[in-house]
Write a structure and sequence with these properties.
Length: 156
């Protein structure tokens, strides 16, 4: 595996375990089983999910919403988060996306270390209006509380 972690594509049979994992790390659960959401998981020796990463692509294919990048507390401080994020960024670029976006209220310095800069959340919502996460945040009013980040993918 090029990112230094052993990832497998998330299958329908993995969604419950991924949902529990993302719930534990307080990340969005919307659309995990949707066909357009690309997700990968990392498991430990016992088979438990200890890492995840993924993205959704905009309808026009130009934008990717990076999401579900998480590492269990027992696996942190080993570069896994960066490797997982880079994996999603690289896959989105390979799929043809030109810009990556994400929401993060707590991890700005982490995302900045990967080339992301503060972005306009309304611009994100417009570019990725058809994604599960954006629709959920608009429906619940959470969008107004979110912090958006973005970077060009040709620099990946």
């Amino acid at each position: 595996m090029t990112c230094g972690v052993d990832l497998e594509r998330c299958r329908a049979t993995d969604v419950d375990a991924l949902t529990a994992f993302l719930s534990d790390v307080d990340l969005t659960l919307s659309g995990l089983d949707a066909p357009g959401v690309r997700l990968w998981i990392e498991r430990d020796e016992s088979g438990a999910v200890v890492g995840s990463t993924g993205y959704e692509i905009s309808g026009d294919g130009d934008h990717a919403l990076i999401r579900s990048v998480a590492v269990s507390s027992t696996q942190r401080s080993r570069g896994r988060g960066s490797a997982l994020a880079r994996f999603a960024i690289d896959r989105a670029a390979e799929e043809g996306a030109l810009r990556a976006w994400l929401f993060s209220r707590r991890s700005g310095p982490f995302w900045q270390s990967l080339g992301f800069a503060s972005a306009d959340r309304d611009e994100l919502a417009e570019a990725l209006a058809d994604t599960h996460q954006v629709r959920l945040f608009q429906q619940t009013g959470q969008l107004a509380r979110e912090v958006a980040w973005s970077r060009r993918l040709d620099a990946a």
